[in-house]
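lol ok so funny story. i was supposed to be doing the assay writeup but got distracted and ended up predicting the structure for this chain instead. priorities right. anyway since i did it might as well share w the group, maybe its usefull for someone
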Amino acid sequence: MKATGLKRRVLLQGGSIALMLGAHQIARGASILAVRVWPAADYTRVTIESDARLNSQQLVVGSPPRLAVDIEGIDLNTELRDLVGKIKPGDPYINGLRIGQNAPKVVRIVFDLKQTVRPQVFSLAPVAAYKHRLVLDLYPEQAIDPMEALIAERLRDAPKNGSNTTTAPGSGPVVATAPPAPAAPSPAPAPVRPAMPPGDPLGDLMAQQAARPAPSGPAPALPPGGMPLPPAPPPVVAAAPPPARPVTPPGPPPRATASRTDRIIIVALDPGHGGEDPGAIGPNGTREKDIVLQVAHRLRERINAASVNGSPMRAFLTRDADFFVPLGVRVQKARRVQADLFVSIHADAFTTPAARGASVFALSQSGASSSAARWLANKENDADKVGGVNVGNHEAQVQRALLDMSTTAQINDSLKLGGAMLGEIKGIGARLHKAQVEQAGFAVLKAPDIPSVLVETAFISNPEEEANLRRADYQENLADALMRGIQRYFAQNPPLARSRQL
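and the output, tada:
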């Protein structure tokens, strides 16, 4: 009896110890696996990855602007301490941060901010290679307008040939620091402002941008609908009648300046993936997001140096750095700048390394043109899950409204653009995976008013094609081919005069 009772007591004690250990493990909570920071002009993202879901509370403090985030159920560890060193001096929003154990099982992170922000804090369930993620997105209080950004870039590149600029022989332009004193009246007729092309007020806005003083803060806030209100119309000024004969014979349209522009042809370039979403990864570790951004930068250089029938071209990138842009926002940006074309650039991957060749895709309203096209569209449409989208945000409603308006005319034009690009890609000796433009329900191609294609430059999962994609000369040839495809399309489908709604 005594021996049996002793055994019972030993078993009970052992069970109590096991229960105590289990309770300790539960109290310990989640373990932090990694921290990542993705700074960009649009927003800065901080990601904290853990082996269990994290609960947090946040508080925004002004003057000076700060953001305090309390993460519950964790202890300060090496991975979290590493977050301090991941903040770079060029981050547009974060000046620095402090981190410490604020209370038992509560870690507090205080972000010292460079400007007031609108934080979005949300959790993401495990997906792909990621475990649980706590995401902190720091958006500017006043949202950046893609059109304003495009105009600012255009003005930086435009020659300053206005009234305050003179050019001495053999020298560059000399810009006056202040307007000169009024000169004596001249008997010559008053100059007439150069005529703008029909119904394109983009130049007016550029002139207003050049005339207004440099802003002391971010761009103006967008209204709830996401699009800025149009500026007030400029005052109407009566001009003196023009002289009977023109001073100079008609010639090619003058180059854009701060006070004049002609019809600008805008091509939206969309480097796929970015930030938390690396895209496909080659057998030697090459990341799709890096390759397609490099190709987009090379193509941008070619577009910005070209013109269509005398009208200058301009490239707009949906992302110009390593950060994530949701699919619907990519389309929204292209529509905001009223792009004439939309080209999404990717590098394909498949389950076996044997697959190879470039492909071009357009949208389909009636099902995919092949099972492979359907598979690829589904994979690309899952990018938001990997990249991380705050589904509780109002952007979800915006995306649903935006991505259901594609038109037959848009798809037909997209097929023409895709065909021109396929022909040029083949011309550089690249192998084609399919000889014709394929179609599927790619979410990023659903702008109703912009011919849109998705270019899979090669299979990054194929070792030979991965090596090609890493070569600068191959990227240059690929950018040349895409540029010639764009020019071929415009040669057969000249851009129409349009009124840009600012």
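The CA atoms of residues 161 and 257 lie 6 Å apart. The first helix runs from residue 2 to 28.
back to the writeup now i swear
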